[in-house]
Amino acid sequence: MKSIQRLFEIDPWKIKTDQLDIENRRLQESLTSIGNGYMGMRGNFEESYSGDHHLGTYLAGVWYPDKTRVGWWKNGYPEYFGKVINAVNFIAMDLFINDEKVDLATVKPEDFYLELDMEKGLLTRKFTVTLAGATVAFKFERFLSIVKKELAMIQVTATVLAGEANIRLVSKLDNNIHNEDSNYDEMFWQARNQSATNEFSHLTTQTVPNNFDIEQFVVTTGMKHNHVSDSARHEPLTVEQTFNFHLTTNESITLEKQVIVLTSRDVPEEKQVAQIEQLFTDFDQDYLSLKEEHVLAWKKRWELADVLIEGDDAAQQGIRFNLFQLFATYYGDDERLNIGPKGFTGEKYGGATYWDTEAYAVPLYLALAEPDVTKNLLKYRHNQLPQAQHNARQQGLKGALYPMVTFTGIECHNEWEITFEEIHRNGAIAYAIYNYTNYTGDESYLQKEGLEVLAEIARFWADRVHFSKRQQKYMIHGVTGPNEYENNVNNNWYTNIIAVWVLRYTLENYLKFEKEATIQISAEEQAHWQDIIDNMYFPVDEELGIFVQHDTFLDKELMPVAELDPIHLPINQNWSWDHILRSCFIKQADVLQGIYFFNEQFSFEEKRANYEFYEPMTVHESSLSPSIHAILAAELGMEDKALEMYERTARLDLDNYNNDTEDGLHITSMTGSWLGIVQGFAQMKTANQTLSFAPFLPKAWNAYAFHINYRGRLLFVKVNAETVTFTLLKGETLELNVYQEKITLSDTATIDLK
């Protein structure tokens, strides 16, 4: 295993350090990101910092269609590459001590301390500098309110420890911002209007025009302070207010900055300034009161979501960090939104929606939030059904092809092998409908909107297959499976199995709900779909007892990752793409993804044979990989392997496993740590609408515990070395299967750990 890079101390509730790591500043910024579902930012400093770093603030649903730039245009390519755009830096403050600028890249601080309090949703920082004849201690605290989504609060306190100091603070709204991932180093913002007075300032900007009929977003940001400024000024993309304080030894001053952000997604441009002024009136509470309501709201979230781990503080910190970042990104409040793989922490992947949501995030939100949260994720895809149909027509196919990357439902990723070969993601959209229905027991969505989506995805698969006369089987050629380290392969086992499952699931439910359905599937279509179901080709190897990843996988030079010199890892940073594609090494679960999804269809022997064959060749260079392997290893009794994979997914970003966290966190894969505990160690399954468990306790732990919502009940599950305890905290009596035996849970049941 690679050596880990640990920048922060181990603490169950906090991400903290007393070191300013200039060499890894970007990584520190990623790991101290905060958000509230409406907006978020990296852990940038409020004051100017001239060293290498990545300044990033992002607003939910605000994006830009950047021109697709490829060396050779192919028919069917998206016209634009959609991307989240870096927005106004509203925490900005220039700090001066006796007219000398405070810049921690050039002025060495003393007593530096940085802390993200995950329990309370607070980011704090402290340091002391000696500059221009004075020693001054600064303390910063900020939060993005999860109660008042448009509100950000920043507090800075300056205390003179020695000497006299004229402290000048220049508080700014700065939209002179560029994206780091822009193809053309373009500025995505243009000025609309601004005002700066000693009491209130605002800045309104608009995304620059585009040629793709995508709306131009308008954003207005307003700021107020607890002091009246001495002067105020504005430029086209910046407004600022200046505050001057003269302090002697042991004197302090605190400046509180209140920021409100509105976008044209919710409020038209002509009403934004007035609405901000009204919100400042509505939110007229002191800093402490606003902070207290924010902290209380986080407390309520944690009461349901928290996972308790005894005996391993690193594991405890990991799961809480991941849950915090997930809920800071998305909490289901807006059905127009989805979960970007980097959330509010960076620009990689365009910040758009991937299949990660349906495959990895839905199970967590089903258990840790109200059903409407997941239902909003399903509505997001239903609302974009016409765009998915457009994507299919662009490829000359029937039905609907849900995008690999999107903001609107139109595909906006510019890599052919990902965009139009990795079509297995279409099945994940359908699987989420099944998952929601099976978990909640609510069939109302499936009967109407769900069947509309399922039927169009089924039509896509029915058109995308072809019939091999030689084999007398249906096949799917020219695809990329979940293992993106192979492109343009034929008969990827996972793609074929999920295509058949969609056809079968759609047919079954259409026949069940035909009277309620809002669509029609002709008898001819039904017969054709059934023929595909009955005659799909699946590559298998009887001698090895495995499902073959694709037709020619076994012709590769097969070897385990353990035989590679560690200097080659990660291979995606050390090998040419050609070398990777020809190798046997697997980026993430592929065949095993199918076994995870359709677990009950396979025997224990089939699961073990496939796991033991594929996992040793898996480099886990996708953040999505470790969790699936942890879950299956746990089921197979490979407890040490399950723990190894759990630790990798739980601390993937905190320990920078893949050397790629500096450009943002892996938000959607953060669900993997929860999945690894609940679906892995506790073996929670919901197949056939039956809730079952078969827990074990990792050897390194003393105990673990978690809550889940399930069909109107709230359960608390605790596992220690001797027993498993199930407590029904809310709801009606529930039947469970525990170690394949039925129990009836009406209050508390304790079972000896087997």
TrEMBL record:
Q: Does the keyword Hydrolase apply?
A: yes
Keyword Hydrolase applies: yes
- Glycoside hydrolase family 65 C-terminal domain location is 684-745
What Gene Ontology molecular-function terms does this entry list? hydrolase activity
- Write the record's keywords in alphabetical order, separated by commas: Hydrolase
Superkingdom in the source lineage: Bacteria
Tell me which residues make up the Glycoside hydrolase family 65 central catalytic domain.
Answer: 320-674
**Xref: InterPro entries:** 6-hairpin_glycosidase_sf, 6hp_glycosidase-like_sf, Gal_mutarotase_sf_dom, GH65_N, Glyco_hydro_65_C, Glyco_hydro_65_M, Glyco_hydro_65_N, Malt_Pase/Glycosyl_Hdrlase
Q: Which Pfam families has this protein been placed in?
A: Glyco_hydro_65C, Glyco_hydro_65m, Glyco_hydro_65N
Coiled coil (residue ranges)? none
Domain named Glycoside hydrolase family 65 N-terminal is located at 17-265
Q: Which family, according to UniProt?
A: Belongs to the glycosyl hydrolase 65 family.
> Know the name of this protein?
Glycoside hydrolase family 65 protein
Species whose genome carries this gene: Enterococcus eurekensis
